């Protein structure tokens, strides 16, 4: 069973997508922690997240550009280019 096959309410955080350069598909994620300057994202194990990303969060109309500043198994920390 992978990270996103569980019931939506069973997973922590808001649904999100990591948008990378075309032609790469968007990567599903969960936003565990969000501030004006960055976020902690939960990603499926083994997912390769590029250094530069755009984060789209379900239910929000703002996309945030940022860069990955740390990596842990199944998680990444992102610093936004501009505070929200």
Give your account of this protein's structure:
With 84 residues, the protein is an all-beta fold. The protein has one domain (8-80): Thrombin, subunit H (Beta Barrel), CATH 2.40.10.220. It is 0% helix and 49% strand. The protein is built from no helices and six strands. It has strands spanning 14-19, 27-34, 38-42, 52-57, 63-72, 75-80. It has a six-stranded antiparallel beta barrel.
Order of helices and strands: EEEEEE
Q: What's the name of the CATH homologous superfamily?
A: predicted glycosyltransferase like domains
Q: How many β-strand runs? A: 6
The chain-level structural class is: mainly beta
Cα end-to-end separation: 35 Å
Number of domains: 1
Shape: globular
Please state the second-level CATH architecture: Beta Barrel
CATH topology heading: Thrombin, subunit H
CATH class: Mainly Beta
Strand order of the largest sheet: 1-2-3-6-5-4
Average pLDDT: 87
**Using only CA atoms, what is the Rg?**
12 Å
What proportion of the residues form beta strands (DSSP E)?
over 45%
Provide the low-confidence segments as ranges.
1-9
Helix fraction?
under 10%
Biggest β-sheet: count, sense, barrel?
6 strands, antiparallel, barrel
Oligomer: single chain
State the helix count.
0
């Amino acid at each position: 069973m992978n990270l996103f096959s569980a019931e939506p309410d069973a997973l922590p955080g808001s649904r999100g997508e990591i948008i990378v350069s075309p032609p790469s598909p968007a990567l599903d994620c969960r936003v565990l922690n969000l501030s004006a300057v960055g976020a902690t994202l939960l990603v499926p194990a083994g997912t390769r997240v590029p250094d530069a990303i755009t984060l789209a969060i379900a239910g929000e109309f703002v996309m945030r550009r940022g860069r990955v500043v740390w990596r842990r198994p199944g998680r990444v920390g992102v610093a936004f280019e501009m505070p929200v």
